[in-house]
TrEMBL record:
Protein known as: Cytochrome b-c1 complex subunit Rieske, mitochondrial
UniProtKB keywords: 2Fe-2S, Disulfide bond, Electron transport, Iron, Iron-sulfur, Membrane, Metal-binding, Mitochondrion, Respiratory chain, Transmembrane, Transmembrane helix, Transport
Gene source species: Myripristis murdjan (pinecone soldierfish)
Domain (Rieske): residue spans on this chain: 178-246
Tagged with keyword Cell division: no
Length: 248
């Protein structure tokens, strides 16, 4: 096994040298005459052979890879401890920083791979030009696969909805809490009963009417009559300018 490792490894030339040196010296008979008696006594392990110090073996020189402060074999290791410690801290710190950065990159890429792509994000918002909707009219848009009602209210509708007694409401919510600009009501066109699409400008309260089971909503999208339990949902929206609304 040792022989196999030596033949395959980087130290093969040196181990080969050791083998030959030992072979040549441990030759019975002739060795004893060639080696001084003192040496023979000192290294002899058996009557027929001796062991040498193998001083002829070439030891690889790693000086180019060793730091200057540890190259002198006569110097105490205590003297170089500060420098070695600093080097260890430097390597540890650098490895940690690189490791943390790599981990952060991997996690960021993994998480961002699960987020919506740019085309999906673009579909998640809808920009509507308000100038196209005359006062008193409701327009329906498709947003995230659902109907979206955008209603341009008249002054009369605004005043009527603002004056509604909250005690009369099934799902109490003041009109001002459902709109950003009182002139515009923006709600999802999905009945809160079983999900039908209500009809605009219809019903007993002039807002929306769901013909499926007869739910009546007012011009603020609040449920006023019928089986629906909740007001029409108000999505998030904002007005970048007076003529535009962005929903989503
Ligand atoms: S789904 Fe609208 S009233 Fe039933």
């Amino acid at each position: 096994m040792m022989s196999l490792a030596a033949r395959c490894g980087a130290f093969s030339p040196y181990l080969q040298g050791t083998k030959h040196a030992v072979k040549g010296v441990v030759f019975p008979g002739a060795v004893k005459d060639a080696v001084p008696a003192a040496v023979n006594t000192l290294y002899s392990t058996s009557p027929g052979g001796i062991r040498l110090a193998h001083t002829d073996i070439k030891v690889p020189d790693f000086s180019d890879y060793r730091r200057p402060e540890v190259q002198d074999p006569n110097k105490s290791s205590q003297e170089s401890s500060e420098a070695r410690r600093a080097f260890s801290y430097l390597v540890t710190g650098a490895t940690t920083v690189v490791g943390v950065y790599a981990a952060k990159t991997v996690v960021t890429q993994f998480v961002s791979s699960m987020s919506a792509s740019a085309d999906v994000l673009a579909l998640s918002k809808i920009e509507i030009k308000l100038g196209d909707i005359p006062e008193g009219k409701n327009m329906t848009f498709k947003w995230r696969g659902k109907p979206l009602f955008v209603r341009h209210r008249t002054e009369k509708e605004i005043a009527t909805e603002a004056a509604v007694n909250m005690a009369e409401l099934r799902d109490p919510q003041h009109d001002k809490d459902r709109v950003v600009n009182p002139s515009w009501v923006i709600v999802l066109g999905v009945c809160t009963h079983l999900g039908c699409v209500p009809i605009a400008n219809a019903g007993d309260f002039g807002g929306y009417y769901c013909p499926c089971h007869g739910s009546h909503y007012d011009a603020s999208g609040r449920i006023r009559k019928g089986p629906a339990p909740l007001n029409l949902e108000v999505p998030y929206y904002e007005f970048p300018d007076e003529e535009t609304v962005v929903v989503g």
